[in-house]
From TrEMBL:
<dbReference type="Pfam" id="PF20067">
    <property type="entry name" value="SSL_N"/>
</dbReference>
<dbReference type="InterPro" id="IPR011042">
    <property type="entry name" value="6-blade_b-propeller_TolB-like"/>
</dbReference>
<keyword id="KW-0812">Transmembrane</keyword>
<dbReference type="Pfam" id="PF03088">
    <property type="entry name" value="Str_synth"/>
</dbReference>
<keyword id="KW-0926">Vacuole</keyword>
<keyword id="KW-0472">Membrane</keyword>
<dbReference type="GO" id="GO:0012505">
    <property type="term" value="C:endomembrane system"/>
</dbReference>
<dbReference type="GO" id="GO:0016787">
    <property type="term" value="F:hydrolase activity"/>
</dbReference>
<dbReference type="GO" id="GO:0005773">
    <property type="term" value="C:vacuole"/>
</dbReference>
<comment type="similarity">
    <text>Belongs to the strictosidine synthase family.</text>
</comment>
<feature type="domain" description="Strictosidine synthase conserved region">
    <location>
        <begin position="158"/>
        <end position="243"/>
    </location>
</feature>
<keyword id="KW-1133">Transmembrane helix</keyword>
<keyword id="KW-0325">Glycoprotein</keyword>
<protein>
    <submittedName>
        <fullName>Six-bladed beta-propeller, TolB-like protein</fullName>
    </submittedName>
</protein>
<feature type="transmembrane region" description="Helical">
    <location>
        <begin position="16"/>
        <end position="38"/>
    </location>
</feature>
<dbReference type="InterPro" id="IPR018119">
    <property type="entry name" value="Strictosidine_synth_cons-reg"/>
</dbReference>
Length: 371
């Protein structure tokens, strides 16, 4: 004699297979009838004239895959950006994005991330695999340094050049490479460094260590301090180059609404900090529990998958004192890695999108809060 649980299971399975096809047929028939009734209704619909909304605001769509950082050379009116395919590309901007011209300029043989231009037009590159590079304005590539204190630079990320020629750049993590950078987040230890390179002596120095993924860097208007981002701690520091605080570090901006990446000064009293991830509840939970991160590390290693931890990305705007005054965010802007203001436009780079996004700031003005 069959047990009661076995009898119920068998009966339920038989019943399901008997009525399931009928339910599907009934549902499809209902949908078809509804579509027919709607189609026969006398109310008419037509296509909107979408062309009147203007051109797309995407520059170099399909040609600029992973345009991580954007730097502008005002004399030539050219933008430089480093892409996933290893090319530093030059983009000639025009009022019409459709008329913007993209060209391959120099291939680094690695993955160019942060970019900076000095007063002579030479481009400095923080390459994730090659270290700190320099490309002369005529396209000659030179490796400046790939070690600091005898330790190889693991993931060169952001860079800025002072008027006196001193270069400041970050090693996001000396332990992990660009391909496995997520492991640095999951491990939860500070492997990042802020470095300096003196072109006159060709010396590389570590000026700040033990950072949780050191990222974008920028100088103050007077170049008396350098700002650098600590991505996994949602904050930015400043290292003093002059004055009574020379050689010391303090917090410039803390408790940011997202994870900071590259930072740009616009020459008009504001720093624009890209935020590829928001500080979502998912990320906060992941950050707070080591065992959760260990589980994610296991799935990443063996299944090559990670949960989606973010909801939106964008750009946060800070004043000269590090106070947030506004920003631009959207759920479609995840992985935004750079926000560069040029004239009346904001150009957004990304580590994953195949284009540069342009925002008209006159049509979308930044609402600056009163101080």
């Amino acid at each position: 004699m069959a047990k009661l649980t076995e009898l119920n299971a068998n009966t339920t399975g038989t019943a399901y297979y008997s009525w399931a096809p009928g339910l599907v047929s009934f549902t499809m028939g209902t949908i078809a009838l509804a579509m027919l009734v709607v189609q026969l209704d006398t109310f008419e619909t037509v296509a909107y004239p979408m062309h009147e909304l203007g051109e797309s605001m995407l520059i170099g769509n399909g040609q600029l895959i992973g345009a991580e950082d954007i730097v502008y050379e005002p004399k030539s009116g050219v933008v430089y950006t480093g892409c996933h395919d290893g090319w530093i590309k030059r983009v000639t901007l025009n009022d019409s994005v459709a008329d913007s011209v993209v060209e391959n300029w120099v291939h680094t043989g690695g993955r160019p991330l942060g970019l900076a231009i000095d007063q002579f037009g030479d481009v400095f590159v923080a390459d994730a695999y090659k270290g700190l590079l320099k490309v002369s304005k005529d396209g000659q590539l030179e490796v400046l340094t790939n070690k600091a204190e005898g330790m190889k630079i693991g993931l060169s990320d952001g860079v800025v050049v002072a008027k006196n020629g001193m270069v400041y750049f970050t090693d996001a993590t000396y332990k992990c490479s660009y391909r496995d950078a997520m492991n640095d987040l999951l491990e939860g230890r500070p492997h990042g460094r802020l470095l300096s390179y003196d072109p006159s002596t060709k010396q590389t120095k570590v000026i700040v260590r033990d950072l949780y993924f050191a990222n974008g860097v920028e100088l103050s208007p007077e170049e008396d301090f350098v700002i650098f981002c600590e991505t996994f701690m949602m904050r930015c520091h400043r290292y003093y180059l002059q004055g009574d605080k020379k050689g010391s570090v303090d917090v410039f901006a803390n408790n940011l609404p997202g994870l900071p990446d590259n930072v740009r000064y616009d020459g008009d009293g504001h720093y624009w900090i890209a935020q590829p991830w928001d500080y979502s509840a998912y990320f906060k939970y992941t950050q707070g529990y080591p065992f959760v991160r260990k589980f994610f590390a296991f799935t990443l290693k063996h299944l090559h998958k990670m949960p989606h931890l973010t909801k939106f990305g964008g750009v946060l705007v800070l004043d000269l004192k590090g106070k947030p005054v506004g920003g631009y965010y959207d759920k479609e802007w995840e992985m935004t890695s750079c926000g560069t203001k040029i004239g009346n436009y904001l150009y957004l780079g990304s580590v994953s999108k195949p284009y540069i996004l342009r925002i008209d700031l006159l049509q979308n003005p930044l609402t600056v809060a009163a101080s």
